[in-house]
Amino acid sequence: MLGLMQSQPLLISSLIDFAERHHGSGEIVSRRVEGDLHRYTWSDAAKRSRQVAHALDGMNLLFSDRVATLAWNGYRHLELYFGVSGSGRVLHTINPRLHPDQIAWIANHAEDQVLCFDLTFLPLVQAVHARCPMIRQYVALCGPDKLPKDSGVPNLVSYEDWMGSQPTAYDWPSFDENSASSMCYTSGTTGNPKAALYSHRSTILHAYAAALPDVMCLSARDAVLPVVPMFHVNAWGIPYSAALTGCKLVFPGPAMDGKSIYELIETEKVTYAAGVPTVWQMLLGHMKPDNLRFSTLKRTVIGGSACPPAMITAFNDDYGVEVLHAWGMTEMSPLGTLCTLKNKHLGLSPEEKMKVRLKQGRAIYGVDMKVIGDDGNEQPWDGKSYGDLYVKGPWIVREYFKGEGGNPLVDGWFPTGDVATIDADGYMQITDRSKDVIKSGGEWISSIDVENIAVAHPAVAMAACIGMKHPKWDERPIVAVVKKPGAQVTREELLKFYEGKTAKWQIPDDVVFVEAIPLGATGKILKTRLRETLKDYRLPNT
Ligand code: AMP
Prior knowledge:
alpha/beta, 13-stranded mixed beta sheet, seven-stranded mixed beta sheet, 16 helices, 25 strands
């Protein structure tokens, strides 16, 4: 017997409809590329999202066609979130911090047909457009007065001209909730970047879960500042959860420095903020010297990299702000665990509570996890036994876009590439990473790419790249190099060799010349052994 409840597909358009109908006067504030603050409401955002849908229809874009963005967090980007996905197209948020070669590769792989970009990224667009033949429309996120003249970018129109005169009424189409809604490439794996392709269903379920009290705890009383970029796993799903709860949204635009973020928190009475540790490091660094205080901020969710204990203490003890340590990944939409206490922890001493808070946290309903040891068996939940962390759930990838990399699942579970323990209360803690990538300031650096460039130098016989702890960036890459017999090359020459071959921030911080690089039985570099050899090494200027 089937249930007799109404059947309605879970579609992203329903979120913006809801926000307009029930929270129409709720505010959305954005710092623009121009530097000023723009203000409007959920009702305005909904109208303009429908205008975006019309503009896409007018271009005869088909269902599931890809529309890309190279954009900061702001109201126009939000309109694209709802207008593109709501009308049945797929929103592809590109990370502008990647090298132009990678951006061109990703845009072609995704078969993007439209690219909407903030003016900050005009030089990037100028660098890639000739290599992206499938993009037939470039949309600069500005009004016609700011549209650059003689930019050399073909088929370029201003956003306001493109969508501004479209009707504000639109009937959102209804379709299968499993249809693709957005995509995000990750370099957090080996080989070429791979895309997680989210569906309407996975996005809505994630948005529901993210709003729960033990997750982001979002409500219509909150003013939320997503510092985490909208090009990083949909800003951790905050735009969707914000529409679902009707909270006020505050977008930082391009200004992520401590001073700008602090001013925005204070002037817009932000209660809740989300970002990677590096951003909060800059914020705290700005506040400390002048003994500045928060007047409204209550909670901040910190994830993307391990949150340093000192940061949790500083927010909590010095500023009375609760830190929620979160873990997830692009392949998980991204939320997997969040660290909030249980009832049984409330009576613990501050030190004991801190021990719990430092962990990456408990699984959110919808995410199941397990840890597999070296022997292939599931590890007990004892907080000590570690192994590879596997996850499954309705907002976790089954397969990458276009089947890249084959079937990633093992018996239906997704291998995260993280090494972790789980304790008896279900709190997961990351202890290491088995995937061959380094995370710096919330962005990935492929150690393989770093090694490949080094070995392309005529004096280099072998190279191995590892991540070293860094006080600001979490990790920074260094490269250990074995020179060819008789060959000469200096540290400076080798670092110079990287210039132009990779994004600047992906260039290693140092070169360490070694006699030999430890290899395993299969010829694979033993990075754990190399790390042990270099355990006394310190990064320059730290
Ligand atoms: P991304 O796909 O870029 O979101 O990166 C996901 C990866 O970032 C995870 O697999 C972890 O390696 C790392 N990561 C994310 N959050 C945390 C955290 N709270 N602590 C430690 N590592 C984290």
